[in-house]
Structures are given as structure tokens and as C-alpha cells.
Design a protein that fits this description.
42% helix; two-stranded antiparallel sheet
């Protein structure tokens, strides 16, 4: 039997930009609870896109930076909407080990925590 496809409504998608999502990151045998919120276009970080002649390593660095800014904004937005459950702030984010930052970024941006943003 074929499974019926679930279809998003516009209202559900719009509501995602005001809904705090949460999850956990496992790191060295412990878990870190995290929360984030989807951004609207106007909340997205703005940076000039590299041109075609930009060296690959600079392009990778650009995408790494934009991803980190996006994650930071998603965390801060959730913190404003749900201040009682804050675990990460912009200040604490900058002090975290890089490995856990990649896991958090992957969880938030990729949905599975497996994406490595050092490669662009």
C-alpha cells in the first residue's frame, strides 16, 4: 500500500519561524540540550557572494562563516522566544570546542548533526 504524502500548509511553514525547536547533541558521553528557531529572509545574515574567480579556499571560508552566522541567529532567536530554556548564547558559542560547534551546526542546518562546515 502506498503511503500518503504529508503536505505542508503555508500557515504551518510560517509558524515555523516563531516555533522554538529543540534537540540534544551528544559529546564525550554527555548531552547538551539546544534550541533554535527558523529564520525569515529578513533575519538571514547578509554577505557578498564570492565571484567566480575567488579561490576555492576563500569560497569555503565564506560558506563556513555564513553558516556560523546563521546558526548564531537561529540560536539567539530561540533564546528570545524561550528565555527559560537557554543553554547557548552568542558569548558561550564562541567559547565552545570546534567539534561540538560543527555538531550543533549540522543538527540545526542539516537536521542530523553530521554535516561538517569546514569544507564549505
Amino acid at each position: 500500500m502506498e503511503e500518503e504524502k504529508q503536505v505542508w500548509t503555508i500557515e504551518e511553514l510560517v509558524a515555523m519561524t516563531e516555533t522554538v525547536q529543540s534537540g540534544e547533541i551528544e559529546y564525550n558521553g554527555k548531552v547538551l540540550p539546544i534550541q533554535w528557531c527558523e529564520l525569515t529572509e529578513s533575519e538571514e545574515p547578509k554577505m557578498a557572494v564570492p565571484d567566480e574567480e575567488t579561490p576555492a579556499d576563500e569560497v569555503s571560508e565564506y560558506y563556513k562563516e555564513i553558516a556560523q552566522q546563521r546558526v548564531g541567529r537561529m540560536l539567539e532567536k530561540a533564546n528570545k522566544l524561550s528565555p527559560d530554556t537557554v543553554t547557548l548564547t552568542a558569548e558561550s558559542w564562541d567559547k565552545l570546542p570546534t567539534t561540538i560547534r560543527w555538531s550543533i551546526s549540522g543538527k540545526i542546518l542539516g537536521g542530523d548533526g553530521a554535516q561538517d562546515f569546514t569544507t564549505g
